Amino acid sequence: MNKKLLLIPIVLLATTGVTLAFGLSKEKKITIDEIYSPKLTTVENKQPVKNKQITNILIAGIGGENHDGGMLTDTIIFTSIDMQNNKIATLNIPRDLYIDLGDKYGYNKINSANAFGEQEKPGSGMLFLQNEVEKILNQDIDYYIRIDFDGFKDIIDTLGGITINVERSFVDNQYPTENFGYKTIYFQAGPQVMNGERALEYTRSRHGTNGEGSDFARSKRQQQVIEAVKDKILSEINTYNPTKIISIFDALKRHISTNLSYKDIYNLYKIADNFDNIKVINRTLSDTNGYVYTTTTIDGASIVKPVGNNFNLIQDLASHIFDETYDPIKQQLDNLPKIVILNGTNITGLASKITEDIKNTQEFNIYYVGNYDIRNVEDTILFDASGNTPLSSLNLLNQKFNAKILSRRLNIFNSYDNIELQTDSNLQKLDQLQQLYSQADLVLILGSNITENKASI
Question: How far apart are alpha carbons 24 and 127 in whole angstroms?
Fold first, then answer.
């Protein structure tokens, strides 16, 4: 049996912490049936894998028994397999994504969906989560796989550890322990071999210093571990013996729940025979790539929301998940007016807060954010630098921030109230700003009056 038969299951192992089918050489004479046993939890199956070009699988990681919030999903990954074009694409979904979970549970973090489903009916947690992810992405999901922390650790320990290059040192003083307490963990920058426990700490840490305290940083570390598992298997595949392979599967079946049937697993195994190589595409939803932003609830809890407070851009990305060059954010931004945001007050961080609010409207391309040369500006002023911005966008900023609009288009504001007409001195300032920010369409200078508009900060 050619080694390429191992590629689909290897990548899925790396992607999900789970291996769906591990091809074994004919000389070893070990079959799929010998590896899998009825101990693997399965439920009613859907359309067989072999009849579909695209198969979508939802992957979730939970704490499991002896962990605080054991049914909360610490990891959520949408995985799509293109059978014809030999591609696998993944999309990490932030665990703190704030969504409507229906009349009974209202708005809540998506990581609670599995737990709520299990409360309603044991064994139905992943179906609840699957339904919510389908609505978010506007994609049908064929199967789900759920693995707990102990299974994750066992797989990596069975592999003999993995090599991770930690990009930057960080400390987490609030890492949860099995006895529902906290401990301090520390990671030094640089390459290092991690066992299962250490790799779990690396992927779960959510309160790290040095920029590693966000859900987005954690997703990036998870992808690192995914790649490391794949690399470890690919580099040592010829040395694996039947005992080691069976031990991997033994670790899996104790800690995994899935609605993939044995037949589906075997079909994935057979499909791999047609793969000369597999291309893996990893995508994430983060505040840096513009799909989501971090905010807080009225109770002060940190949450993640989609930009624009809708899932249009995320659904657009999901529908083109196999196209690495497709970036709906960039396409949208290229057609939006470029805006410069300058803080003209002594309120630290005001420009950053307003930037998030403006970004969330999905009507402007943030060109530059910084401080104005004068820091005692009273009235917020919007300079119509290019004269090409749609009037609706100008009026939106005027209404949202009580901004006085200064423009050469004297006759365009007749239908709007409270618009200040420019003076000669203001026109001179407009000329200066146009020279300084020649590529910008708008320059918004924040004044102290903006703090009166509580909705904007």
Answer: 32
Query: Do the Cβ atoms of 19 and 31 come closer than 8 Å?
Result: no
Give me the residues paired with residue 368 across strands: 340
Q: Where are the beta strands (DSSP E) in 268-332?
A: 279-284, 292-296, 302-306
Angle (nearest 5°) at CA 138 between 222 and 218: 15
Pairing of strands 338-343, 302-306: unpaired
- Give the C-alpha separation, 454 to 118, whole Å: 40
Q: Name the DSSP class of 34.
A: H
How many Å apart are CA 58 and CA 129, to the nearest integer? Answer: 9
Helix (H) or strand (E) holding 372: none
The H-assigned helical ranges of 237-364 are: 242-255, 262-271, 312-319, 328-334, 350-360
User: pLDDT 10s digit of each residue in the chain, 457 long?
Assistant: 333 333 444 445 444 433 333 332 333 333 333 333 333 333 344 455 555 688 899 988 887 666 666 688 888 999 998 878 878 898 989 989 999 998 899 999 999 999 999 989 988 899 999 999 999 999 999 999 888 877 778 878 888 899 999 999 999 999 988 777 889 999 999 999 999 999 989 988 889 999 898 877 887 888 788 778 877 776 765 565 556 666 666 666 677 788 877 677 666 666 555 555 677 788 889 877 878 888 888 888 888 888 878 898 999 999 999 998 888 887 777 788 999 999 999 888 888 888 888 887 878 888 888 888 888 888 898 888 888 888 888 888 888 888 888 887 755 554 444 444 444 446 667 777 777 788 889 999 999 888 655 444 4
Residues 372/344, Cβ–Cβ less than 8 Å: yes
Non-local (6+) Cβ contacts of 237 within 8 A are 3, 6, 10
Contact 355, 457 (CB under 8 A): no
Residue spans per domain, the chain: 3-319, 336-456
Tell how many helices (H) and how many strands (E) occur in the chain.
Answer: 14, 19
Size of the chain, expressed as the number of residues it contains: 457
CA distance 140 to 130: 9
Number of neighbouring beta carbons within 10 Å of residue 146: 26
Q: Is the pTM value of this prediction over 0.70?
A: no
Q: Which fold is adopted by the domain 3-319?
A: Aminopeptidase (3.40.630)
Contact 177, 357 (CB under 8 A): no
